[in-house]
Amino acid sequence: MHFWDKYGNVAQLLFIKPDDALLEAMVRFWDPTYRHFTFNEVDMMPTIKEYSNLFHYDFRDPLRIY
Questions:
Q1: In the 8-state DSSP scheme, what is residue 40?
Q2: What are phi and psi of 19, to 5 degrees?
Q3: What angle do CA 53, 58, 64 make, to 5 degrees?
Q4: What's 4-49 look like in SS3?
């Protein structure tokens, strides 16, 4: 129950069908050194809201670690 309170229902992420083209693009443009995406010379970092849309998961609780 403590895990559930802290992390919520993260197990539902196991049932999301990944978009292969999206994953390929994310891997191609991800810069692990700086932990952001690099497109040409523009650095981009998705927001929690954008991750929420990509993964179809509601990340509203600010006290939870995602």
A1: T
A2: -90, 110
A3: 125
A4: HHHHCCHHHHHHCCCCHHHHHHHHHHEECCCCEEEECCEEECCCHH
Q: State pLDDT tens for residues 3-54.
A: 877 777 777 778 888 889 988 988 898 888 888 888 888 888 877 788 788 7
How far is Cα 46 from Cα 59, in angstroms, rounded to an integer? 13
Q: Which contacts qualify for 41-48: CB closer than 8 Å, 24 or more apart? A: none
Tokens of 23: 């994953």
The pTM score is: 0.43
What would the two tokens of residue 15 be? 């049932």
